[in-house]
Amino acid sequence: MYGAIRQWKIVDPGRTFLVEFEDYDSVDRIFLDNPHYLNCQLISIEKHYPVHVDNSDRNFLRQKFTDLKMSISRFNDFYQIQLMKNQKFIEQNFVRTETHLSDIIASYIHLKQNLDLLHRTNVQLRNNIKQRIFQNRNILQEYDNQLQLQRFLNDSLKQIISQEFS
Prior knowledge:
Elements: E1 5-12, E2 16-21, H1 24-32, E3 36-38, E4 41-43, H2 55-164
Antiparallel strand pairs: 1-2, 3-4
């Protein structure tokens, strides 16, 4: 369940046993799965570090260390390649974004100039309309004055004619 056992030994019958696993990660998994029971009794688990290391242990550790270095090297190579790809991708996107931003700024400047021109045209048209309204009021007032004068003259002429023919 936890991995291959390299060797085991009874230190104190019924009380203490030493179990050595091929893979040291097995010991960590055992500690992560705490608590442990044997025949419905809670058992105590402790790590034991050997006082001496024989050649087979040295060779085993050397091999594990070499394997670990190779794994790290492979991962390092893989992530370096990924990093270079990502960096290139980011640089390309940055250039695209920078170009797009320049286009947006140019469009904004063009729109701002058009808006300013439209605003000035709008102000001129508004002033022209106000001036036309003022001129139209003056023309209308002049027309009303001339109309009143013409009516007065017509009325006066009617009176003169009626007095003449009466």
